[in-house]
Amino acid sequence: MHRDISKARAEARFMLEAIHTPDDQLTLEQRQDIARKTVENFRDNINKGFLSYRKSVTQAEDFAYTEWQGQGSVMRDVLGREFIDILGGFGLYSPGIRHPKIVAAVKAQLDRSPQYSQEMLDPLRAQLARVIALLTPGDIQNGFFANSGTEAVDGAMKLAKMYTGKAGFISTLKGFHGKSLGALSLLGKAVYREPAMPLLESVIHVEFGDAEQVERALSIARAVGQGVAAVVAEPIQGEAGAVVPPDDYWPRLREICDHYGVLLIADEVQTGFGRTGTIFGVDHWDVTPDIMCFGKALGGGVVAMSAFFAKARIWECLTPNPFMHTTTTGGNPLACAAALAHIEVMLDEDTPGQARDKGAYVMGKLSELKGLYPGILESITGKGLLIGMNFVDDEIGYKVAAGLFARRVLTAGTLTNAKVIRFEPALTISYEQIDEVLNRLEDTFKSIAV
């Protein structure tokens, strides 16, 4: 492809005109053009590999399902085809798609300033840090804002190394922490790690949920003089299939880390801000980590937003030179406005409580389906509305995912466990929508059982 400035301008104008046109004024031809061009552009300018994996292409009719509009727990494609969303943007849409209070806050801030000057003090970032410090357990106090969960994990790792002066980490098998070179070093599945080797040295992987393996690893590391900065884990493993650890796991991790003088990092990127039925995943076990990582839902599904927060004594290592870790766009005013509004929505609407109650309802109904249709659903895991439907094998899992998509339910598998399909909707999803999803799921089970 050669440079063509006039064509670039025309291509930009094509989509800008489409998004500025009221939806009821878009013609069928314009909508079909958007769907067609989207497939072509993924093929030619992003990664054609996506097209063979996306059900929106492989199960499409004449035109691929092309995302266009969403509200609450309903997603519509550019041709108006409607889906109930139980994927939730992999946990992004905890308050629902386009929650009006969050959208309004971002629009209001956009009318003032969309980014910082980089020199004057920015009040929204300071206020959001204060609010999060008041929400987090124990004495978590200081934080840094970024754009993605991966950046938050990388920042937490860097902080741990700077504070302890040690290079090593202990992480978990099937754990998911992001795909930058730093976070990827923690990730617990070979298919994502091997092509990027070598990664960071001195990362030890142990089974998730087994605190004694962590203690043995730290004991051996001490014996051979291998420095370990931190133990990193998700409160509940998300991409592994909503795996809940034993109740003594997190309390024992706290004890073990204190005994060996290493930091405890909780990756709350997926579990944080209400997803599992409490504000943070570690709240289930009343544990205060040394560092916490946030992302996904923090920006309310409106603006990308992440953060890592730590105890004040740990943060002191950044005080002499606060420019040791910086970002140009992280914690920008639009993202902070979205996060502040989302936190208000979370507290006003008690979305953690909604997740707890609706999650219990869903898991009960799934257990009934498991009994009615043996040989399909092996187990149900998770807490709140971070639920894993664990199927007997990959083939059954694929058939269920495809069957749900054909019945206009939007969901997906997990990245480190192919047998698991997530049930991870907006925490505000209605019971009527949940029941409709369960009806369509049962219909899918019936088609497979025949």
Characterise the protein shown here.
Keywords: Aminotransferase, Pyridoxal phosphate, Pyruvate, Transferase. Pathway: Organosulfur degradation; alkanesulfonate degradation. One of its GO terms (biological process) is putrescine catabolic process. The chain is of the alpha/beta class. The chain is 44% helix and 15% strand. The protein has helices at residues 5-20, 28-47, 49-53, 55-58, 88-91, 100-110, 123-135, 149-164, 181-186, 190-193, 211-224, 249-260, 312-315, 333-348, 351-372, 394-406, 431-449; strands at residues 67-71, 74-77, 82-85, 140-146, 168-172, 203-206, 228-233, 263-267, 291-294, 306-311, 377-383, 386-391, 409-410, 420-423. Strand 2 (74-77) and strand 3 form a beta hairpin. It folds into 2 domains: 23-86 and 350-450, Aspartate Aminotransferase, domain 1, CATH 3.90.1150.10; 101-348, Type I PLP-dependent aspartate aminotransferase-like (Major domain) (Aspartate Aminotransferase, domain 2). It has a 7-stranded mixed β-sheet with strand order 4-10-9-8-7-5-6, with helices on both faces. It has a 4-stranded mixed β-sheet with strand order 1-2-3-13. A 3-stranded antiparallel β-sheet has the order 11-12-14. The mean pLDDT is 94. The protein is globular. The protein is built from 17 helices and 14 strands.
What's the helical proportion of residues? 40-55%
- What number of domains? 2
How far the N terminus sits from the C terminus, by CA atoms, comes to 50 Å
CATH topology of the largest domain: Aspartate Aminotransferase, domain 2
Which band does the percent of strand residues land in? 15-25%
Main sheet record:
7 strands, mixed
- Rounded Rg: 23 Å
The counted number of beta strands is 14
- Globally, the shape reads globular
Strand order of the largest sheet: 4-10-9-8-7-5-6
Q: What class do helices, strands and sheet pairing give?
A: alpha/beta
